[in-house]
Specification:
Structural class: mainly alpha
Distance between the termini: 68 Å
Largest sheet: none
Helix content: over 70%
Amino acid sequence: MPPARDVVVPHARRTVAGLAAIVVGLLAFAAVLDGVDEHGDLSVWDSPVLTWLLSHRSAGATSALQAVSFLADPAVLAPFVIVLALGIAWRTRRVRPALLLGGAMALAVVTSSGIKVLVGRARPPLAVMIAPPETNPGFPSGHTLGAATFLLVASYLLWTWRPTTRTAVVSLSVSAMGTIAVAASRLYLGYHWLTDVTASMALAVTIVGVVIAVDPLLPALVRWSTMVAVRRRNSTPSVPVVS
């Protein structure tokens, strides 16, 4: 029987799985956004959840969750991802994992920034935030989206290297716990509403769906781009040399 890492999952199945994740993620995000717009559905729990968390604050929990929030800060996470991607590429002599991870994180940043501007939703009052305060739009949570995307894509890459049920269960469990920890930190510290972090989780599922769908096509895309670059270089007219 071949080693676990030699088991190949058909490209068609990965593509279908990726498209399914994209649809599920987008539908979930649309449902959360609709509730926010109409002040209904899940958004009715925004204030109760925040109030409950405020009443259960403690010095120890605050310190721990500030550390979690700091590690998930895009300004901290982005350099880490860049170094990690370069390290993976150097260690494995393969650019695919680095391209998928880096591309997913870049997509998460662009998506978060764009939706924040378009929706323009206010964060909870400054009075409930634990310093330093944040005043830019809060929907969705950039910290939660970045952390969830990183963890889910890392889980997928690990599974493609060793596609076993145990790998899937362990990696997804770690991803879920890490994402929940970051989301909880953002809620506890008063920076976001419940629907902000929930929307980020849905978007992260969408982005990992894009990664799964694109992954089987990546070798062909790389070959095509290389071929186009070579053709352009060969078609460039030479400059005559005047002697």
